[in-house]
Design goal:
single chain; mainly beta; 4-stranded antiparallel β-sheet; Tachylectin-2, Chain A; globular
């Protein structure tokens, strides 16, 4: 599967997130501005019956003062038949933050009146929050985000949590740790760990992430935690590397999203970029067992 969106003049689809409603898989992804030179990133929505062939059905455009410079990189989860979308503002540097919206059909969303609902605090970071993902773990909804240090050079991951059944609005979130839960340490990660993608299995949280900034090349790693806060890498090498020259993912394999289907099978969605910086989304089946994480 290679999915992209050509509606805005260039093959461009980044930052995947996938859910299922009834018989439809729904893919959320980032799209560029309508006109070149604008900031204004938005979120595309596509549907599929088989996760192979996708039909673009709608777009979520920036709305209101908080989102005026753009939105992107959504994380999604279905709780009690309601789709919760956690997405970031874009184009505001250290002031970017996470917003929240809900939907009954996965297409038409109602914004949270308290947006933005989360950004980290403290001297350990610059206060920015991007690349949201959420997972239910030990009766809490954990929110994972990427942020940067005070110098705005190093990207790292942070965490917060809210009680299950809450409104998931601004006042519901508590910072899980006054510091990074994962930061770049390996050579291939360079100055960046971003795009957390979490799943709870075997009483643990497995965290897939993008190491290095876009096209540096970014590659995908994986870490695991027994408490949802303190993570340990499964390997010092990328789980999924960038591709060879002339391939669709030559510049990167990055920004992962882990999805568990209704039959229990796991799929890792991720983006790739070629030498022309055209972006596409693919998926690979994943097995998580007592030995570790395996890509089929």
């Amino acid at each position: 599967m290679l999915f992209t969106d050509n509606s805005r003049g260039k093959s461009f689809a980044k930052d995947p997130a996938v859910i299922k409603i009834k018989d439809d898989y729904i893919l959320y992804y980032t799209v560029p501005p309508v006109n070149e030179g604008m900031i204004g990133y938005g979120i595309g929505i596509a549907k599929s019956k088989d996760m192979e062939v996708w039909e673009i059905v709608s777009y979520i455009a920036p709305e209101g003062e908080v989102e005026k410079n753009g939105i992107c990189a959504a994380g999604a989860i279905v709780l009690d038949n309601i789709v919760h979308l956690f997405y970031q503002t874009y184009g505001n540097k250290q002031h970017d933050a996470i917003c929240h919206a809900t939907s009954c059909d996965g297409i038409n969303f109602k914004r949270d009146k308290t947006n933005p609902i989360y950004r980290p605090s403290g001297e350990w970071c610059c206060g920015r929050a991007i690349d949201a993902d959420v997972v239910v773990f030990k009766d809490r909804l954990y929110l994972y985000i990427a942020t940067r240090d005070k110098s705005f050079k190093k990207q790292m991951l942070g965490a917060a949590f809210a009680e299950i059944g809450s409104a998931y609005s601004k006042d519901c979130w508590q910072e899980a740790k006054a510091g990074a839960i994962l930061k770049p340490e390996l050579d291939w990660e360079q100055d960046c760990i971003e795009a957390p993608a979490a799943i709870a299995k075997n009483n643990k949280v497995y965290m897939f992430y993008g190491g290095a900034y876009n096209c540096s090349p970014q590659q995908i790693g994986c870490a695991v935690s027994e408490d949802g806060i303190n993570f340990k890498r499964l390997s010092n090498k990328p789980l999924i590397a960038n591709g060879p020259k002339k391939s669709w993912n030559y510049l990167e394999s990055g920004h992962p999203y882990i999805y568990e289907d209704t039959d229990g099978r796991l799929y890792l969605f991720y983006q790739g970029a070629d030498k022309n910086r055209e972006w596409r989304i693919t998926r690979a089946e994943v097995i998580i067992d007592d030995i570790g994480v395996h890509i089929l």
